[in-house]
Amino acid sequence: MLGSQSGFVTRVIQKAPNANPLHCMIHRQAFASKTLPSELQDTLNTIIKTLNFVKDSALNTRLFKRLCQDMDAAHETLLFHTAVRWLSKGNVVQRVFELREEISLFLRIQNKQDLLTAWSADSFEIWLAYIVDIFRQLNTLNLELQGKGSLIIDFVDKIKAFIRKMENWRRKIRIGNLAMLEKVSEIVEECDAATQNLITQYFEALEGEFKRYFPDIQSLTSRLLTPADREGGSVP
């Protein structure tokens, strides 16, 4: 499709030199979202290993369901993690967060020491909550980019708005405002300075990934609008 010698885009440009080839916005957003700092990736790997331990065995699945029933949990089962579907990760970690007490008890009953060690770490619950919060935001953006009738200029506006959101979130976190991180706020009322710095760094890393995958984001608006549109100020 994108081959520089005989790909589809090359052939189109040969016939229409003024054409503007653009890589799919939804794919780029998914690629930018997949890059996680080492601490968050370790937490996500632990979540996936825990899911595999519970879900790969029919016996463990039944025992965990019975445990959830006995504890009057909000849910009775965990969701499968599907690597090829980004949106599934948000739903998976949300369910894990809601059943975190049941999962921890189940691992203790099953004497799964390697996973228990990871789950017992001081920072694990905070990073689990952070992953839930940031995946929720990324999934919301992903869904906003889907659907019929959307134009590229709409995609550009939404990506630019999300980058500005991350800049605003970093400013708020520096002064101790965690309102945008709903699940983190449930865990702690106030983060210590070290945790605030790490969360700020994570937002900076995510913002950097978006800018890396959308290097043309600032120029796309001017390229896609006609002179009349720009003079009319129809798009910020």
Automatic annotation (TrEMBL):
Lineage: superkingdom: Eukaryota
Name of this chain's protein: Uncharacterized protein
Species, as recorded: Petrolisthes manimaculis
